[in-house]
Fold this protein.
Amino acid sequence: MTGSGAKTVTINGEPRQLAAGTLAEALVALDYEDAVVATALNGAFVPKRKRAETQLRQGDRIEIVAPRQGG
């Protein structure tokens, strides 16, 4: 992992400790590795192709949204 130790980040409104340096590593740690999801960091959309280069910092807010089916 790129990060140096665990940091506290907020994921979908819940504070969590993560030892992930990038958004891509955080998704793996949270078992979203193969899921089709949309991600945002501190309110800004992060496309899938940018997740591996998007660094995480102490206090970041991550939103992970999965598409829903039905009406």
The beta strands are 7-11, 14-18, 38-41, 44-46, 61-65. The chain has a mean pLDDT of 92. The helical segments are 23-29. The radius of gyration is 12 Å.
